Amino acid sequence: MTSAKEQISEVRRLCHRLCYASCVSEKRRGGHEELLRLHSLTRPHWSVVRREEQIIRIDMGESEPFDISLPLPARDEREGSDAGVALFWERFRCRKCGRCCYTPGAGLLLEEEDFEKIAGRAGKRRLKSLCRYDKALSAWILKQPCPFYDADKRGCSIYDIRPQTCTKYPLHPPLPQLPYNLAVDAFCPAARDFVKETLGWWIICENNWARLLAGTEKP
Fold first, then answer.
1. Hey, CA dihedral for 181, 186, 191, 193, is it positive or negative?
2. Taking the mean position of all CA atoms in its chain, how far away is CA 177?
């Protein structure tokens, strides 16, 4: 017999396979607003009644390291499955605060292509002096704070050839609890803004899950 946890996991998998395009389209056009309005007449959605609580939790990312799942489908092997990623970048507004660049950290892995591009501009000897070599990963790790962050201009001095990891930030791999959803680094202020602004989008996900769950429960 399938457990409730397994059933929910299967429903979310099905939702990702069957609803990712319509899900993104509905969020882009603001379909959640009508659903929230209808819910307010009977049982207001948690994104409304618990908004302050959610914002406090989200803002803990200022000082605590954690990721937050988004109500957007993650990319998979299917062509066109990057609709969720596209909508994220369409709505995401970087604050250009530089926190992801100047904050001390464990370092930034450079793909081989990244290393060669940056070395071509900065010089291989100089770049190596700004990195440490990780034998386990067989890769160069750029030390943090990032030496290519220009504090005066509040920007990256190698922006056009910045590492691949930087081009994806603040997106992080999906969380185990929601493996079919995009996730962001809560350390990023603009990512936290995005999470707050899209809390209501979850009602679309939940409606899809409920509809699919009802279908799987039919005899």
1. positive
2. 14
pLDDT at 13 > cutoff 80: yes
**Which pLDDT band holds residue 219 (cuts at 50, 70, 90)?**
very low
Query: Whose CA is closest to 54, among 200, 188, 179?
Result: 200
CB count, 10 Å around CB of 209?
17
Longest dimension (CA), the chain: 68
Contact 150, 157 (CB under 8 A): yes
Q: How many angstroms separate the CA atoms of 173 and 90, rounded?
A: 19
Distance CA 144, CA 159 (A): 16
Distance CA(51)–CA(196), nearest Å, equals 8
Lowest mean pLDDT among 81-90, 98-107, 163-172: 98-107
100 is written with which tokens? 């992801």
